[in-house]
Design brief:
The chain contains 5 helices and no strands. The protein has about 130 residues and is mainly alpha-helical. The chain is elongated. The protein starts with a helix and ends in a 7-residue tail after the last helix.
Length: about 130
């Protein structure tokens, strides 16, 4: 996870610098590397002005936009999957070490579902 975060930071800083160099003289929200970083965060969240970027530089505008969106989301998705996989592995290891906990959890879920079904009249009371 730390490695993926490092990769994301390097890619993110590289794109911030590239956007600053390509558009900093023409577009106000790329004037400094810091403002470029904030604009790229907004871009990852879906708030972007593609038209201004494409009009400013017809080659680099679309190229940087598409590359950043795909690489940014690819790395973020991989980070999310790494977190989920790590959590799943931890829970699986705990369940294998303490099988009675898993059994107790299953019984609790079973009782809760049966109680809900009885309250809706879908199952007769015991």
């Amino acid at each position: 996870l730390i490695l993926l975060l490092l990769v994301f930071v390097v890619i993110f800083f590289g794109f911030a610098a590239a956007h600053n160099f390509a558009f900093g003289s023409y577009v106000s929200y790329y004037r400094t590397v810091g403002t470029s970083m904030m604009t790229l965060v907004r871009m990852l969240l879906g708030d972007f002005d593609y038209a201004t970027q494409a009009e400013t530089n017809r080659v680099l505008g679309p190229l940087l936009f598409v590359c950043f969106i795909f690489l940014g989301w690819y790395v973020l998705l991989n980070m999310f999957l790494a977190i989920i996989t790590d959590a799943y592995s931890d829970v699986k290891d705990d369940a294998e070490q303490n099988p009675h906990v898993l059994h107790a959890f299953k019984e609790k879920i079973k009782r809760t579902v049966n109680k809900a079904l009885r309250s809706f009249g879908l199952r007769k009371s015991d």
